[in-house]
Write a structure and sequence with these properties.
Number of strands of chain A: 0
GO cellular component, one term (chain A): plasma membrane
CATH topology of chain A: MetI-like fold
Structural class of chain B: mainly alpha
Protein name (chain A): ABC transporter permease
CATH class of chain B: Mainly Alpha
Number of strands of chain B: 0
Helix content of chain B: over 70%
CATH architecture of chain B: Orthogonal Bundle
Main location (chain A): membrane
Keywords (chain A): Cell membrane, Membrane, Transmembrane, Transmembrane helix, Transport
Radius of gyration of chain B: 24 Å
CATH architecture of chain A: Orthogonal Bundle
Largest sheet of chain A: none
Oligomer: heterodimer
Order of helices and strands of chain A: HHHHHHHHHHHH
Family (chain A): Belongs to the binding-protein-dependent transport system permease family.
């Protein structure tokens, strides 16, 4: 029985991969992501946190891009290239973990709200709707300001303010899955809440979740950089804090375009890559979109 | 920027979905009343939530408020009594709710003035900036989205979709910094074209020239705000027009011999417009986030900047007051959108 299911899943997976490969934009995005993640992971092998230290700047202050400093230097002579490289670790880490937190809350609340129809589902939807109307950036800023700046609190602040849209999506999918006859069969055979939600609902919402996670990471990275720019940072070098520095030290009036351009382009590239992959995933996984395309 | 792109579409689908169980078989008035009740409940939750959130602050609230200024124990005690912090939590809670309902938002430590006065001063510039930005973004987004959706797959469509995807991925503040550098400070041989600090020049003239001065200060903040928010209106207008293109009535309109432009403007657009306009109000929280960022970059003396300063100091009374005000405003806008949509769209009403 298990092996039949396993073969079927393997087949579905290879079909999915074949479909995904047809999306050129999605493949480009995936390529960028793989490169970015690998670079962030191997960074400690080549450089250390020293590159972000203000007293160990290696070059001239405000040096424009040259052969020795390909992307120029900042107000204390630190290399922008190395800082962007090191900063990718914080930006990506917060992006992934905040998205994960948001998705997990959204999944649990969404499945529960869709599965338990009574007062519990109603109450959960009320809470979700309430969180949905809160202006997320403003709320995240307040949370970060109150809880204090650390990697953990920034992740919490982003996760807590972004889960409701996932919860709504998952609830809708759960409702549509639970309307199918095999759920009724399963109930007739004595399946409990746990069995139905984990064995039947979860595998059916998982593909949707994958696409939505990808998009969620993209928006979490943007939110992290915005929070860092507005002063709520984890006190570690990230692309957002670099841009904050460029603003504080007046890079625009100094004409130090490289200081503003490079970290922003890094954010743009990674966020675009996530968005492209997410949209390709949606196109592959959603048959309705596939027909339209 | 803080919510995935696709979240916009479920929001519309949800508003457009006739299956909203709360509205079945009831009149519009009843619907409006139930929505208003929901809004009041949400606002009450915001007040309760704010109270407990700001009590989560680690450490002594009096010391937090004083931001580490040196105070004698007697002064601390006096301050504690003045703020009512010597009372039990439940009494503090009722005091807080009562004060908030009377619109007494406390006194800012940084400015030594009532929070409500500060908010009142900053409201005008924000409404001016966000209002102008929103009007431009909505009209541009609807116009371009309708054209892109009508000629689905054309070069214009691909360009529009691509451009909005890029704008979507760009963090607001980075775009603001770039625009400030290029058009504010000037780059290379190009001189700066527009002012990028504040709302008026130090030596601002009177009369009509003053309006021009403010307008020139508004160019860059407005441009940034528009660039970031208009992408979502474009995409939603495009997708909702796409749904109309294949409808029978469009074919009929064409068969009547109407020109292509007439079919689009007189028949398809009005139907596609409704979800988009609802979205404008539904996602007003997103615009608020954009406004905070834009006002911070260009030091625009609005509510967003006031909030940013409160976070930066940190001035918790001010932060609490602006947070509640912004949130309540967003809830009211959302509810209004919901009810107006219900009144305007017979498809929802009939359900």
């Amino acid at each position: 029985m298990t092996s039949v299911a396993a073969t079927r899943r393997r087949l579905a997976l290879s079909r999915f991969w074949a479909d995904f490969r047809k999306h050129r934009a999605g493949m480009i995005g995936l390529g960028i992501l793989v490169v970015a993640v690998v670079l962030a992971l191997v960074a400690p092998l080549f450089i250390s946190e020293d590159v972000t230290s203000v007293v160990r700047g290696t070059g001239e202050k405000w040096a424009p891009p040259s052969l020795s400093e390909p992307f120029g230097t900042d107000e204390s002579g630190r290399s922008i290239l190395l800082m962007v490289w090191w900063g990718s670790r914080t930006s990506l880490l917060i992006g992934f973990l905040a998205a994960l937190l948001s998705i997990v809350i959204g999944l649990v609340v969404g499945v529960a709200a869709g599965h338990f129809r009574g007062w519990l589902g109603g109450a959960l939807m009320r809470v979700t709707d309430w969180f949905l109307v809160l202006p997320s950036l403003v709320t995240a800023l307040v949370l970060a300001a109150i809880l204090g700046g650390s990697t953990f609190t920034i992740i919490m602040a982003i996760g807590i303010t972004t889960w409701p849209s996932t919860a709504r999506l998952i609830r809708a999918q759960t409702l549509s899955v639970e309307a199918r006859p095999y759920i009724e069969r399963s109930k007739a055979l004595g399946a409990g809440h746990w069995h139905i939600t984990t064995r039947h609902v979860l595998p059916n919402v998982a593909p949707l979740l994958l696409a939505s996670t990808t998009l969620e990471v993209a928006s979490a990275i943007v939110t992290e950089s915005t929070l860092a720019f507005l002063g709520a940072s984890a006190n570690k070098t990230s692309w957002g804090t670099m841009l904050r520095g460029s603003y504080d030290y007046g890079a625009a009036t100094q004409g130090a375009w490289w200081y503003i351009l490079i970290p922003g382009l890094a954010i743009l590239a990674v966020v675009m890559a996530f968005t492209l992959v997410g949209r390709a995933l949606e196109a592959v996984l959603n048959p309705r979109l596939r027909r339209a395309a | 920027m803080t919510t995935p792109l696709e979240a916009a579409e479920p929001a519309v689908a949800q508003a457009a979905g006739p299956g909203d169980d709360r509205s079945t078989g009831r009149g519009t008035l009843q619907y409006a009343l139930s929505k208003a009740g929901g809004a009041l409940f949400s606002i009450a939750m915001v007040i309760v939530g704010t109270f407990f959130l700001f009590r989560l602050l680690p450490g002594d609230p009096v010391r937090n408020l004083a931001q580490g200024r040196n105070m004698t124990p007697a002064q601390l005690d006096l301050e504690r009594r003045r703020l009512g912090l010597d009372k039990p939590l439940i009494d503090q809670f009722f005091d807080f709710v009562g004060d908030t309902l009377r619109l007494d938002l406390g006194t800012s430590y940084e400015y030594k003035r009532p929070v409500l006065d500060l908010i009142g001063e900053r409201l005008g510039p924000t409404l001016l900036l966000a209002g102008t930005g929103l009007v431009i973004a909505v009209s541009l987004g609807i116009w371009q989205g309708a054209r892109a959706g009508w000629r689905h797959g054309s070069r214009f469509d691909r360009f529009s979709t691509g451009a909005s995807l890029v704008l979507w991925s760009v963090p607001t503040f980075w775009l603001g910094l770039l625009l400030m550098m290029v058009f504010g400070v000037g780059i290379g041989p190009i001189p700066g074209l527009f002012p990028f600090r504040g709302i008026e020049s130090v030596d601002a003239p009177d009369g009509f020239a003053y309006l021009l001065d403010v307008a020139s200060h508004m160019v860059l903040p407005c441009l940034t705000l528009v660039a970031v928010v208009y992408a979502q209106y474009l995409l939603v207008m495009r997708s909702s027009l796409l749904e109309e293109v294949s409808q029978d009535y469009v074919t009929v309109a064409r068969a009547k011999g109407l020109t292509d432009d007439d079919v689009r403007r007189r028949h398809a657009m009005p139907n596609a417009l409704l979800p988009t306009v609802t979205l404008v109000f539904m996602r007003v929280g997103f615009v608020v986030g954009g406004a905070v960022t834009v006002e911070t970059i260009y030091t625009w003396p609005g509510l967003g900047q006031l909030f940013y300063e409160a976070v930066r100091v940190p001035d918790f009374t001010l932060m609490q007051g602006t947070f509640m005000l912004i949130t309540v405003a967003v809830i009211l806008m959302n509810t209004l959108a919901d009810v107006v949509y219900h009144v305007l769209d017979p498809r929802v009403r009939a359900a």
